[in-house]
UniProtKB/TrEMBL annotation, chain A:
Keywords: Phosphate transport, Signal, Transport. Pfam families: PBP_like_2. The lineage of its organism: Bacteria, Bacillati, Actinomycetota, Actinomycetes, Micrococcales. Residues 1-30 form the signal peptide. InterPro entries: ABC_phos-bd_PstS, PBP_domain, Phosphate-bind_PstS. This is Phosphate-binding protein. GO terms for biological process: phosphate ion transmembrane transport. It comes from Arthrobacter nitrophenolicus. Belongs to the PstS family. Phosphate binds at residues 54-56, 84, 102, 190-192. GO terms for cellular component: ATP-binding cassette (ABC) transporter complex. Residues 39-339 form the PBP domain.
Automatic annotation (TrEMBL), chain B:
It is a multi-pass membrane protein. PROSITE patterns: ABC_TM1 (PS50928). Keywords: Cell membrane, Membrane, Phosphate transport, Transmembrane, Transmembrane helix, Transport. Its main location: membrane. One of its GO terms (cellular component) is plasma membrane. Gene3D superfamilies: MetI-like (1.10.3720.10). Pfam families: BPD_transp_1 (PF00528). This is Phosphate transport system permease protein. It comes from the Bacteria. Belongs to the binding-protein-dependent transport system permease family. CysTW subfamily. It comes from Arthrobacter nitrophenolicus. It is found in: Cell membrane. Residues 71-296 form the ABC transmembrane type-1 domain.
């Protein structure tokens, strides 16, 4: 048995080493492949671009990779969904040319990015917006109106039954069943949890006393399941259960809550999510072209849906070679373009960037240049 | 084997011997080197978590406070699996070795081995998507009727994704391991012992009690320990089935967590100190597994002299 165990570890080590070797090969290609003829940005690009990062972007990234490779036969994009943290780390140590990350670079990460990305450091470009739905399994009820405090109480286990006065007060005329409330959260560390708890901590601070975090607070008693598909499946199987999940994954018989924003209730939609992102404010202390967005979870903007996940591509402001610059520019321009966003919306059901934000992103991408 | 043939092959035999013994030595050293490498990796990577200030570890109360609930959870899940699987496995093994007609026995043995070949993610998916839902009424019954026992204290989980469900799934997974090994051991019982017992007028059950079990005891123990190793280290099935949470005595509420599942669920998005913490948790699991192996060896060596084998 010992031998078996060791064998497994050894295999993992070998695979890891292989993966490392592959990634380093990838980066070599991107910076080392000589372009055929004088390439300038705007024409077809060649080479290999390596990215590591968030698994939330996985589905969208698959679509982008495929479409981009189809339009640029000489170019390939490799993306390894190892997690946001791993992606940011890989960008900072130079093993990846871009990182997919559910959170923009932290201040200290931005500082250390100057080492490899030049004096302006890395820039964060929002590429993927996904509204997070509060989904429940109540037979016969497909819509409920909830406010932040009630959602927080439900997920803290402070509301025991669905016919609780707190829920009834917001939903006059809806016949609420005398059913036990079973909140279901993600058991794995995830960007969805991080954004959901961030919303609750900001919008209902008197109820949600924990900090925002990718891991569900351990002190809370509740059910959980692995991954978006896991929570959706668990809720679908359990009458009275409620969860939060990417809107795209919620379907079937599950009801979806409308969230109180300002004085009215907002139904979840791609437009409402994009509106909430536009209501966010830029992060201070970054380079002029950085598009890090601090979301305003307490926004009162009419029609904005504040429970939203924004995922970024962190790229360098300068790269060593013209080929890499061309490649990064071409790929990122495609990603934030209308067709790129539409491709993501089709395959991953994300919310396209607003035209205003897409314009800013294009400008930021245009600023990427060769290290001087 | 004449004297001439011996001398004629001796030269080549010596060289072959040398090559073979060197190769065997290298293989042995390689295993040790890998084991040492894994241990070294775990220790080096775990040090930041072990030395970090308590407030920075997940949960904010230090590594020990973080690890002990999941160590207990790991042991609870493995214990449930063994309690369920051991008697069934020994029963199945006995049936195959001593009761079943020969043709049925070989077919049954094959089916049991097939169980071991099913990937754990399949067991996990089955447990999460089917078993948990179907078993939750039973948990409600247990909570209502046996709730005075701390392990069946209500309210029962509405989803059925509890440590007991995880333990049941694990028991199905360790069943083939314990069964196959026990069956092999039972078949090795000296025929003379069995026949002597029968000749003395023992019934078949008495014969098994008197000759098969004493002979097979160390083998059964090592089979159970092998099953325990699988149950302790099983990752995917537990990660999918268990609705994890804080340490709870009740087996039918959601809660508890195992080390392997904790690592699998949190590693993909971990960075910095979190990675070290998870690797340190892996180190703890490594030590537990090592300890289980050593205890098993010790029990077997202690029992050897009493077994019918001598």
């Amino acid at each position: 048995m010992k031998a078996l165990r060791i064998g497994r570890h050894a295999a993992i080590a070998v695979i890891a080493a292989g993966a490392l070797a592959l990634t380093s090969c990838g980066s070599d290609n991107a910076t080392g492949t000589a372009p055929a003829g004088g390439q300038t940005s705007g024409t077809k690009v060649t080479g290999t671009l390596t990215g590591i990062g968030s698994s939330a972007q996985g589905a969208a990234m698959d679509a982008w990779k495929t479409e981009f490779a189809a339009a640029n036969p000489g170019a390939t994009v490799q993306y390894s969904p190892d997690g946001s943290g791993a992606g940011r780390k890989a960008l900072l140590d130079g093993s990846a040319q871009f990182a997919g990350t559910d959170a923009y670079l932290k201040d200290d990460e931005y500082e250390s990015s100057k080492e490899i990305c030049g004096p302006d450091g890395a820039i964060n470009i929002p590429v993927y917006i996904s509204p997070i739905a509060v989904a429940f399994n109540l037979p016969g009820i497909s819509e409920l109106k909830l406010d932040a405090a009630t959602v927080a109480k439900i997920f803290r286990g402070e509301i025991a039954k669905w016919n609780d006065p707190a829920i009834a007060a917001l939903n006059e005329g809806v016949e609420l069943p005398d059913l036990k409330v079973t909140p279901v959260n993600r058991s794995d560390d995830s960007g969805t949890t991080s954004n959901f708890t961030d919303y609750l901590a900001a919008a209902a601070p008197e109820v949600w006393t924990d900090k925002s975090s990718g891991v569900w607070p351990a002190s809370l008693q509740g059910e959980n399941a692995k991954g978006t598909s896991g929570v959706v499946k668990t809720v679908t199987d359990t009458p009275g259960a409620v969860t939060y999940a990417d809107d795209s994954a919620v379907g079937g018989d599950l009801g979806v809550a409308q969230i109180k924003v300002g004085e009215s209730f907002t139904t979840i939609s791609a437009e409402a999510a994009a509106k909430a992102v536009d209501a966010g404010s830029p992060v201070e202390g970054r380079s002029a072209n950085d598009l890090s967005i601090k979301l305003d979870r307490k926004t009162t903007a009419e029609g904005a849906y504040p429970i939203v996940l924004v995922s970024f591509h962190a790229v360098c402001s300068t790269y060593d070679s013209q080929e890499t610059v061309d490649l990064v520019k071409a790929f990122e321009s495609y990603v934030v373009s209308e067709e790129g966003q539409q491709a993501a919306a089709d395959s991953a059901k994300s919310a396209p960037l607003s035209s205003e934000l897409a314009e800013k992103a294009t400008k930021a991408i245009e600023s990427i240049k060769v290290k001087s | 084997m004449t004297a001439t043939s011996l001398t004629s092959t001796q030269g080549a035999g010596r060289a072959g011997d040398k090559v073979f013994s060197t190769a065997a030595l290298a293989a042995g050293c390689f295993i040790l080197a890998v084991l040492f490498g894994v241990a070294l990796f775990l220790v080096v990577q775990a040090i930041p978590a072990l030395t970090a200030p308590a407030a920075e570890i997940q949960g904010g109360e230090g590594f020990f406070a973080y690890i002990w609930p999941i160590v207990i959870g790991t042991i609870i899940a493995a214990a449930i699996a063994l309690v369920i699987a051991t008697p069934i496995a020994i029963g199945v093994a006995l049936f195959i070795s001593h009761f079943a007609p020969r043709r049925l026995a070989s077919g049954l043995g094959y089916v049991v081995d097939l169980l071991a070949a099913i990937p754990s993610v399949i067991y996990g998916a089955w447990g999460a998507a089917f078993l948990a839902k179907e078993i939750s009424p039973a948990y409600n019954w247990l909570a209502a009727n046996m709730g005075w026992l701390p392990i069946f204290q209500g309210p029962a989980s509405a989803t059925g994704k509890t440590i007991l469900t995880a333990g049941i799934v694990l028991s199905v997974m360790v069943l083939p391991i314990i069964t196959s090994l026990s069956r092999e051991i039972f078949l090795q019982t000296p025929k003379l012992h069995e026949e002597a017992a029968l000749a003395l007028g023992a019934t078949r059950w008495e014969m098994i009690k008197m000759s098969v079990f004493p002979f097979a005891r160390p083998g059964i123990i090592s089979a159970v320990m092998l099953g325990l190793g699988r149950a302790l280290g099983e990752t995917m099935a537990v990660a999918l089935v268990l609705s994890s949470g804080a340490l709870t005595a009740s087996l039918i509420q959601s809660g508890n967590q195992t080390i392997a599942a904790e690592i699998a669920l949190n590693f993909p998005e971990a960075s910095g100190l979190k990675v070290s913490t998870l690797i340190a948790a892996g180190l703890v699991l490594f030590i537990i597994t090592l300890a289980v192996n050593m205890i098993a060896r010790w029990i077997i060596s202690r029992h050897k002299e009493f077994s019918g084998a001598n």
